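Final paragraph of the annual report: two paired records, presented back to back.
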Amino acid sequence: MKAKRIIPIAIVVVLLSGIYFYMNPLLPIITGYSAKNLASGVFVAGRSQESMEKEDLNFSFIKYNHNKIDPVKKEVRSTFLWKTSTAVYVDGLGCSLVNDVKKKEMLTRPFHPVEILAANPDTIPWPMGDLVSDTIPAGVNTEKLDAALAQAFLDTIPFKGTFAVTVVYKGQIIAEKYRSDMNPSTKFLSWSMAKSFTNALIGILSKEGKIDINKPVGFKEWQNDERKNITINNLMQMNSGLEWNEDYGNSSDVNNMLHKEGDMGKFTIEKPLLFPIDSVWNYSSGSTNIVSLIIRKTIGNDAEYYALPRESLFNKIGMRSTVWEVDASGTFVGSSYIYATMRDYARFGLLYLNNGNWLGEQILPESWVDYTRTEANGSDGKYGAFFWLNKSGVFYPDVPRDMYCCRGHNGQYIYIIPSKELVVVRTGFSKKGTFDLNRFLSSIVNSVD
């Protein structure tokens, strides 16, 4: 009789042990994802907890978190089972998970706000301001354009989850549409579109002679093996050869980096070489955060480093709303975490459409956009340097092959199509297979000459 009782108890112990060992490494990702994104959604983007939990956090284990917001301390605590993660807001630097670094240190960074362009943008003509011309450029079929935008907001598969769309043609905004609970002042999360902004900072530093993208980066951790030959160019083209797993669905490198690590660049630097350098294309958010760390080390002064994006980029092109978040160690999360309005994202697209020139000022090196659009070895025509390409036409068969874009998780895009003089920005929350990007973009392309 006792033996019969022992067997079920042993089975229960084995099952509980299995659950523990399966869930334990996942829990910081589950709670960290919820805490970080809810904190940024509330304190940076100005959305409500209800809105975030209903949509952005309503999937997989994430939806089972218990989330508590402290509006005074400006922090969020998310708990699931036996794990709690905390994210805190730091003025000017957005929200970060409290990992490996004490909260007090995170709250006392040497950040000195750079004055955002002071003049009222409503009185300044687009693109430096928000005074948009009522005149539609010649060559626009408004009926087709209106139909394309209406289709994008159907909110049923295959057009599900759109937050906002902005279309710029021949330098002018010709269409804007927002979901009813969002508006032109709403800040939207970039996810991996941030990689393209990291591209811009490297371009600016390259123009100033402070960085050579073809020179080995020289980390001391890499000096005793082949990693010593990795360049910034290799990192930007995603063919550094470093081991990396970008699968967002499990305890992968990218999930561990974003949700468990206080210093994301350092985490990736420690990865071993898996392939010969410049031979295999392997998409890696870690590579971008190494580049972000290189930028910080190059500047060498944190106050100047935190001022760099606004002084050298955002203020130059009228991006008043933009917030670039840092990890717990204080390095910009170059892979994933920018918040900006639709018009600010459109301005960034215009900078690249105009070959890095903004109203006569050459912000980026004159050849930088050509470099950006150069096919990375091993990418089969789909990737350049922190930008996606359409040379193969695999993802966008009905869109001009010269299209290139900033692309972010769950449906964030800045499309740049030089042959059509088009910039199209689309934000939303669209899981894989729920939004037909080719039909969406081609319908806009077909609405202009």
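The closing record of the year follows.
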Amino acid sequence: MDEIHRALAENLVIFFRDQHITPQQHLAFGRKFGELHIHPAAPHEGDDPALMKIYADKDSPRANGEGWHTDVSCDLEPPMGSILYIRQCPPRGGDTLFANMYAAYEALSGPDEGLSRRAHRAA
């Protein structure tokens, strides 16, 4: 676990390919990082509400994560991360992409820069 924590801190996202785990193993792994978040509106898998189930097919009215988002960033105390285990992938599409939110924050303009850009656009 020390190596996994180090890799996550250094890379911000890590992948474990070709894993076959049960829902109980998924939850146990997540608990190695702390208390698990329970999404108030999400369907869950099995008896544990911390294991959120995401499913979509051609008849679904919408698919979770169709656009860029951060998981439950609206919470007062958002979770430190998410653990995604994909059971079934479509033949094409369905990609999950990751963004470095530290880099996004650092790339934001400062208060003075933002004001001058708005003033320039208004002129």
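The CA atoms of residues 38 and 50 lie 5 Å apart. This concludes the annual technical report; the extension proposal builds directly on these records.
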